[in-house]
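Field: sequence (string)
Field: structure_tokens (string)

Example rows 1 and 2, in order.
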Amino acid sequence: MANFIDRRLNTKGKSTVNRQRFINRYKQQIKKAVSDAVTRRSVTDIDKGEKISIPTRDISEPTFHQGQGGMRERVHPGNDQFSRGDKVERPHQGGGQGSGQGDASNSGEGQDDFVFQISKDEYLELLFEDLELPNLQRNRLNKLVEYQTYRAGFTNDGVPANINIIRSLRSSLARRIAMSSSKKALLKELKAELEALEQTPGSEAEKIIALKEQIAELEAKIAKVPFIDTFDLRYNNFAKREVPSSQAVMFCLMDVSGSMDQATKDMAKRFYILLYLFLTRTYKNLEVVYIRHHTQAKEVDEHEFFYSQETGGTIVSSALKLMHEIQRERYPESEWNIYAAQASDGDNWADDSPTCRQILERKLLPVVRYFSYIEITNRAHQTLWREYEGLQKTHDNIAVQHIKQAEDIYPVFRELFKKQAV
């Protein structure tokens, strides 16, 4: 008789499957909470985990119970208004005296929202879901690496949606054969012996009864072997692998002039940090060039771009000219996918805005895959916005968006880099 004992130790991630199932089930509420969290966070903690709060009404589980079907006749105690055959009107909304539990009450009692913590990786995964670099072309397959999901065999753990029925049944069949084959062989021998005794005159009745009891006991043991067990379940396993796709460079241009107050600069930093996290998480070996400008533009490193303080006037064309020079020297358009993201409050010398349009139209837009411009201001749009908006009408690789407050950053970011329909 074979006995199977499971001596596997419980791993720390034993609830991972249930956790992922919960996140998938309530993804809409969680993504909304993640979106709200982006606007509340400071620049330094934008990539940390998050506490997610879900209203209890959204996580209530459906229940099945026996309904009151068929024709029923009841005598309700205390009835002094209705006679047999009368129709009872439905109570008006809110007029019932039920004892249901609400989310709040005048006495201060009620049900709290369900709160749980998501990790940094889960937070970023939800933050950048369904985003990509637009118009990416495979012009040189040796630099940029994307991650592609592929089938990677089978695993013993997973979600119900990934169950492989054939593999699970095959495992079930092997287990049932292993657990019952010796019993079935013994049962066959006992039945043959019983048949021989029954056909032989003068056989001992006690021996026949004992054989029948032994046969019944074996048949009961065989019947107890379950058709399928949790150990039999096999799930399709999925993994991610690197897929070389192309070379790409992202130019980040930010206005740091005196017209950009601290609140405006902070919103611009949040946008660029979102962009930086998205690029470094989604693409490997993608190069980023940082350019800051006031009346003059200069290329800086990542730390200086996000945290350095500068003041002065505004000449936006200086940043566009520097971008064009760097692009010609280091990133030829025949070998690189070129992207640019520019943030400004829209303030610029009036006679410089037409120059910006000319540089974009003649030098940059013909070589870039995508140029995104965000204007962070509560004032009326000025000449720079109007020049860029005019280019948007005639070119499909430039996008212009407006941010008024911190709550607009994440929706605008998703709009700029949403995955395009194939």
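Row 2 begins here:
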Amino acid sequence: MDILFLAHRAPFPPDRGDRIRSYNILKHLSGRARVHLVAFVDDDAAVTDEDRALLGECVVIPRTKSQVRAAAEALATGRPVSLTAFADRRVTAAVNAIVQRHPIDAVYAFSGQMAQYLPADVPLTIMDFVDLDSAKFDAYADDAIGPMRWMMKREARLLGAFERSVARRVTAPLFVSAAEAALLPGSRALENGIDTVRYDPQRSTPVHSAHPLIVFTGQMDYRPNVDAVTWFARSVLPLIPRAHFAIVGRAPTAGVRALAGQDVTVTGEVADVRGWLAAADVVVAPLQLARGVQNKVLEAMAMARPVVASGPAAEGIDHAGTIRIAGDARDYANAITALLNDPAGAAALGHAAREQVIRRYGWTARLTPLDDLLGLHAERQVV
């Protein structure tokens, strides 16, 4: 079987939320079929020989279009910016060439931006929206003012219409959680997993901290993460005496870097996030806007850390009561302080979280539904 895999960001290296998901899906499929990849790449992409060995053809195209140009194209054509930002004739040409060269039996499109490249004559099409982006922009509009509010509302409306039209014509529209899938009729969930061998506290060396350490991990130019750490540093941390807050993740914005001080560390990109997780007395995920399954929460649970998360950050995860949920600043401060004052209880909570992740979120179990969707049952040998 030949599968064409389309991705808005090449899955290499698998070191951030979307790339972790797309990489593990691609790896799963490549063990059962011949997979051809067409993907955009960012500046930090690194495609190794080992990665290419998973694939038949591998076409990666740098994404060079500016947001200003994408917005201008969107306004001129009546399309969502999310689509014009990823509209590229080079991708269209690459897709057409692969379809002509290979007997493509199925297409797996990762992220809604790539739906515009779905070939018309392939019998099986899987559209992995991951999250419902139109709902995200609708939420952004609630906090915006003036022209930006109008732009966010426009994006939500146009993108929502596009998502619904795509869902009606593909074989299976997928989302990262049941809650996300419920937002688009006819969709189903394909949940994220976690590599519990890699994310094992026994395999990691903790960084040193002289004070009780609270850790947040994530891509630090992503707006929900920026808003979360800014709120936490300003509203929650002052309520927790002697604690230190570490913001761990690449590309921190100027606003995030400005949070650094005596009680806050902003690391920027680190070689291995596991050392920070292993050192954490508590991991927090205070996101107010969170779609689907949060990898940062799964990673902390797998590392047997006690987690305090917002309702939205925990919503897509079957945590079975093994993490603490908090709302306002006082809720967070009380939950974190209670864990810091009870190391044995915190350790027990972290252990229970890891056991839950092992039971529920191994990648093999999470991706098995793809075998039925695509008729893939026998492992093939990758050479």
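free_text_note (row 2): The two ends are 15 Å apart (CA to CA).
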